[in-house]
Design a protein that fits this description.
This protein is α+β, with helices and mostly antiparallel strands. Helix content is about 35%, strand content about 30%. A 7-stranded mixed β-sheet has the order 2-3-1-4-7-5-6. The protein has a 4-stranded antiparallel β-sheet with strand order 9-10-8-11, with helices on one face. The longest helix has 18 residues, at about 50-65.
């Protein structure tokens, strides 16, 4: 089984999000959207052939229905369909996820006439992370394949990577300056973190890229201990979490951490 976690630049129009969910087929296991970020995350899981077909269907629908010229949200983005990572689950060979990436990237570039950037292990033996792609695009990095970006569609980052946990902390009574300092505090080899100003609250938004090394409770406790004012209002999981990461956390804290047995990858596959 493989996972594909498609991030699109639409988090407000429910009719569009419902249409994209409908285009995702039987592979769709979870949908998360946020109006402040103006972003939605669709988690698809299936065998390679079915996942390839359903991911293509969702990507095509997203590029047809989402127009970046009408987009304004706090989350960084460069595409209507912004990020398309493939992940090998269980005993699957990670090379299979990279094959899905390359096949999908070529299809987007040729069939949908949209530029693509690859991240993860590359054909020349090097590797490139998603933050490196974002940085490169801001500084004129040419796409790996496809035409120049249009104002309406932008470009798509297509990757293959290990499993990660997208997880946010919402803070009240905390300035954006302190939130940025907190993001720097938790950021490291196992955690990517950004701070966002969300009206009357702020958010420390995290990608736990090695959740077996640094899980939600460790980030939560680090932020809570460092607060000079305000408080953590809530924790929020974006997408799904591996059961192994959940089981590493104290069940008494699952509610506080915004996680539980119903949001594991395994539970959605069983259901």
């Amino acid at each position: 089984m493989f996972e594909c976690v498609i991030n699109v630049s639409e988090g407000r129009d429910l009719a569009v999000l419902d249409a994209l969910a409908g285009a995702s087929g039987a592979s769709l296991r979870d949908r998360n959207h946020d109006a402040f970020h103006h972003r939605a995350v669709f988690t698809l899981i299936n065998d390679a052939a079915a996942l390839r077909a359903d991911a293509r269907s969702l990507i095509a629908a997203g590029l047809e229905r989402i127009d970046l010229r009408q987009h304004a949200g706090v989350h960084p983005r460069f595409g209507a369909v912004d990020v398309v990572p493939f992940v090998a689950l269980g005993d699957e060979d990670p090379a299979g996820a990279c094959a899905l990436r390359d096949d999908t990237a070529h299809w987007i570039a040729t069939e949908l006439a949209t530029p693509v950037y690859r991240y993860g292990p590359l054909a020349d033996g090097t590797s490139r992370s998603l933050p490196e792609v974002r940085h490169g695009v801001r500084h004129g990095l040419a796409p790996d394949e496809g035409p120049e970006a249009t104002a309406s569609r932008g470009a798509v980052a297509v990757g293959c990577r290990p499993i990660l946990v997208a997880w946010n902390l919402w803070l009240r009574g905390v300035s954006i300056e302190e939130a940025r300092a907190l993001a720097r505090l938790v950021r490291g080899p196992a955690v990517r973190a950004l701070a966002f100003d969300l009206d009357d609250r702020v958010q420390v938004s995290c990608n736990l890229i090695d959740p077996s090394a640094v899980g939600p409770s460790r980030v939560y406790d680090t932020v809570e201990a460092a607060l000079s004012s305000g408080a953590i209002e809530r924790a929020e999981l974006v997408g799904l979490i591996p059961a192994s990461v959940l089981e590493h956390e104290d069940p008494a804290r699952w509610r506080q951490l915004g996680i539980g047995p119903d949001v594991t990858i395994e539970s959605r596959l069983a259901g």
